[in-house]
Amino acid sequence: MYLAQVRPPEGGEVVDGVLTIQSVEYLFNNIVAVALSIAGIVLFILLIMGGFKFITAGGEPAKVEGARKTLTSAIIGLVVIVLSFLILRIIQTITGVDTTVFRITIP
Fold this sequence. Notes:
This protein is mainly alpha-helical. It has two helices and two strands, in the order ββαα. Pfam families: T4SS_pilin.
């Protein structure tokens, strides 16, 4: 596929068959969205695995401890993701700058 055939996302543009710097904004925003989606999927899988380990531990202290560690890690990951998003929103509220959207300003 040639770059001239690439349809830029809304707001992006193609000049002489080359995507412009404005297209980087959309690429970065898409990467962040995919990363957050993957983090959510990994969190879900870790919670399922921890729950399964806990159920199948059979009362053995070592297995129960391993299940607790898995569940604790998953919950800590969730807290980190939520806190990072909340910190960005607090910065946005205080400064008025939209910190959750990546923009390149060309003077």
